[in-house]
Amino acid sequence: MASTFTGVAASPGFAIAKAFRFTNTQYTPQKLTIADAEEEAGRFRQAIEKAKGEIEDIRRITEQKLGVQKAEIFEAHLFLLEDPDLVDAVLDKITDEQWSAEYALYEVTTGVVDMLLELDNEMVRERAADVKDVSGRLMSHLIGKPYATLSGISEETIIFAEDLTPSDTAQLDLNYIHGFVTEIGSRTSHSAIMARSLELPAVVGIGTMPASIADGTLVILDATEGRVFIDPSEEVLAQYREKKQQYDERRAQLKRLSQQPSVTADGEHLELAANIGSIEDLAKVLENGADGVGLFRTEFLYMGRNSFPSEEEQYQTYKHVLEKLNGKRVVIRTLDIGGDKELPYLELPKESNPFLGLRALRLCLKREDLFRTQLRALLRASVHGKLNIMFPMIAVLSELREAKRILEEEREKLRLEGVSVSDSIEVGMMIEIPAAVLGADHLAKEVDFFSIGTNDLIQYTMAADRMNESVAYLYQPYHPSILRLVEMVIKAADRAGIWTGMCGEMAGDLTAIPLLLGMGLNEFSMSAGSVLPARELVGRLSKKEWAALSEQALAMGTQEEVKQFVEQRSSV
Ligand SMILES: C=C(OP(=O)(O)O)C(=O)O
Ligand SMILES: [Mg+2]
């Protein structure tokens, strides 16, 4: 019988196909004590070996079918199977508490997952998903039940699951799987992030799935509105076939722009770049034809692990990104930890106002060892592409000078060691603190570029925590107060002859883009999926016309007026 569900629209698009229910239900073992701890430990070690073999196989197949990047997740899984925090902790529980291997595994991994989830951070949540995935696989070996996989699906299908683990999503064969629906999850859960990066329609968090969704039932997925239609009527089906066709056509049209330059209707060339947090994000950057990477948030390299990444590890990552971008500009931001981003292995004093505390560059100047390691890795990688180094959270000139002094010291050390370093690295800074806007004239004389971080600039200007729902109404990117700050930065940069970019969310916002273009922003860095809609929009806009229109917007009194004004003039 026809029915409809709603959930979170996690990754846009439409799909019409048959349902397939995928279950890998979590097994909760009983608390059992055992007589022979040695034998039990042996059983656990065997499960690890079997899981390793299996993951190796999946990794190889995934690499052949879906490419190296999709297969990378399994490196992390193999790494986990050697992680003492997991393996030794389970073995200790077996020996010390005489617990069964199943119960010891369950106790240790639920503890780790809960601890990671408490950190309430996107990347750490992904790590929690990895731990769950690996422990599910180990458990299946211990209890002798196969761990279900999605790799065998060979019919056009929409997957229904409680949630999808990283190894499930890595195995999705997009020739057959047209979308998925999960009972749990939010826009930032692992499966949602993965769906967006695969551009696969997904609705998550629909709640407990009813039995009426049997395998083979026809389903419409409207992942743009977050709706799922089970066994729809002919009328609804016809309506959605039409919607899907229009959506797919628009997407195909946009894809044609991926190899086109980013140029306005009056011939101004702009740089529409992408933000990344890891090398996994590169596939979409290239596929969408971004003009470069405008922000690599390197803190994610430091998260979801137990110790700092070494210089060599960082060097390899930066080199990889630079090589993949093949001569296009890559702006790599130095560590921006603190505020909402914590590292479990970095002991920091508890602060009552972490967003106003020891974060980002302030921390790097206190912990020079960390900073120097990262700078060395960056300098060494610079010969592999077009590298820009960017410092976050600078408020005053002395911080910039200190950061540059340390950078130059490391450059000199490498020179003496005979290591080559590019001599065309641009060094810039983020503008995300109001004091830096007001001091932009002075700062501009000592950097090669600015990149405006509106996510923080708005919160510090409005004195409204960017994560606090109760004051979310103050988070107003188009407010004339914010626009004036942006204009001040661009003007100061122009006077000093340097370029200005923006890498906060505002840069990819179709309502903000006309104004930013009019104010003279040179580079816009956004999520990879926003690049083509932005390119299409700027192709319709005249910079000259928007220079005049943005003047008018800057003189308005409220965000609402500005928004309405832009939407009327640019038909976004
Ligand atoms: C891009 C920014 O940095 P993050 O979101 O990483 O703080 C910003 O503040 O706008
Ligand atoms: Mg910021």
Automatic annotation (TrEMBL):
Keywords tagged on the record: Cytoplasm, Kinase, Magnesium, Metal-binding, Phosphotransferase system, Sugar transport, Transferase, Transport
Record-listed E.C. numbers: 2.7.3.9
Localization annotation: Cytoplasm
Record-linked InterPro entries: PEP-util_enz_mobile_dom, PEP-utilizing_PTS_enzyme, PEP_util_C, PEP_util_CS, PTS_EI, PTS_EI-like, PTS_EIN
Gene Ontology MF: a single term: phosphoenolpyruvate-protein phosphotransferase activity
Domain PEP-utilising enzyme C-terminal span(s) in chain numbering: 252-540
Source organism superkingdom: Bacteria
Pfam families, A to Z: PEP-utilisers_N, PEP-utilizers, PEP-utilizers_C
Cofactor(s) the protein needs: Mg(2+)
Domain PEP-utilising enzyme mobile: from-to ranges: 154-226
UniProt domain Phosphotransferase system enzyme I N-terminal: residue ranges: 6-127
Reaction(s) catalysed by this chain's protein: L-histidyl-[protein] + phosphoenolpyruvate = N(pros)-phospho-L-histidyl-[protein] + pyruvate
EC class of the enzyme, as a word: transferase
Function: General (non sugar-specific) component of the phosphoenolpyruvate-dependent sugar phosphotransferase system (sugar PTS). This major carbohydrate active-transport system catalyzes the phosphorylation of incoming sugar substrates concomitantly with their translocation across the cell membrane. Enzyme I transfers the phosphoryl group from phosphoenolpyruvate (PEP) to the phosphoryl carrier protein (HPr).
NCBIfam families the UniProt entry points to: PTS_I_fam
Family membership noted in the UniProt record: Belongs to the PEP-utilizing enzyme family.
Entry protein name: Phosphoenolpyruvate-protein phosphotransferase
Recorded name of the encoding gene: ptsI_2
